[in-house]
TrEMBL record:
This is Glutamine--fructose-6-phosphate aminotransferase [isomerizing]. It is found in: Cytoplasm. Homodimer. The keyword Cytoplasm applies. The keyword Cytoplasm applies. One of its GO terms (biological process) is protein N-linked glycosylation. It catalyses: D-fructose 6-phosphate + L-glutamine = D-glucosamine 6-phosphate + L-glutamate. Keywords: Aminotransferase, Cytoplasm, Glutamine amidotransferase, Repeat, Transferase.
Amino acid sequence: EKSGYPHFMLKEIYEQPRAVMETLYGALNDQLIPEAVKLLIDAGKIYVTGAGTSFHAAEHFSITGTKLAGKPIISFISSEYDTYLPATSEGDVLIVVSQSGETMDSLKALRAFKRRGARIISVSNVIDSAIPRESHITLYTRAGPEIGVAATKTFTTQTTLLTYLAVRLGEAVGRLDVGEGKEILGNIGSAGSLVKEALESAEKLAKKLATAISRSSSAYYLSRGVGVPVAKEGALKIKEVAYVHAESYPAGESKHGPIALVENSFPVVFVIPNDSYLEALLLGNIEEMKARGAYVVGVGPEGSRTMELLNEFIPVPKAHWALTPVTHTVPLQLLAYYAAVEKGFDPDKPRNLAKTVTVE
Ligand code: M6R
């Protein structure tokens, strides 16, 4: 039931404030979180994997876990597991992120790592699906059923849960400053209102920008650090539902090739995390794109220094950088949704795609 929304995708985008809070309440009461933290502390190597959107959530955990807990966490796309297998042994941990819990690429990675003695933690939205059944520990997101083929609320719930896990890990290993830990936990506690604010702030502008972007055949989605998986998620969304070719890469790479493609009015969407170091670097990247006539759009914290350089700026609420997926994803989802609608496509049923990919 679409409850008055024209599409499931829009309904599910708007369900995010509740979905992230339910996921958080679940996590706060979940005795398996301390167990998962213990497995991670004792782990030899830590890997994290997934496909599509779930891979972007996996990359987010790799970044937050590595930075907050000082433990290197290796992320890879689940269909590429074979590369990492020879380096895996007893005592390693693999975290498998899968909304449906049925994605064959991710299930195969799980099985292969398990055979080599790795312990498996999964993050899933579907109770007792295949991946949870074969895991040692499963942490559940509580997004509720997601009908739209494009993953929306499952991404923000996965990243909320995984950020929480990264903080708990950082605290447990004594690497996370107490004040910073409190700040992130406080932000996670208000994740619902952060998403809500982002929705309110983005709705109008996203519609306007969708018109511009839906006329382009190609776009770049750029960021640095914690913003990179979010930029990749934005690019995947617009490809998937609006059939606009989009490429996402860490902004520092521009001068190593991709900027050659940029000419007048080429759209470049920047994800500007709430981190002054990353923001300063991105200022340079925005300038270099502008100098070539790009149409530069930014999603960033209110009052960002990048504002005056950008053609369009979508402000999102300020929060700790680790919350970037929670604060910055919503405008990109809306942009993709409205671009699809503008072009007359049904965002709930993109061509060639299935909600759950149970084949290799
Ligand atoms: O159910 P999963 O999270 O394992 O699915 C993984 C991908 O197939 C999925 O995220 C896909 O990329 C979405 N359609 C993206 O919107």
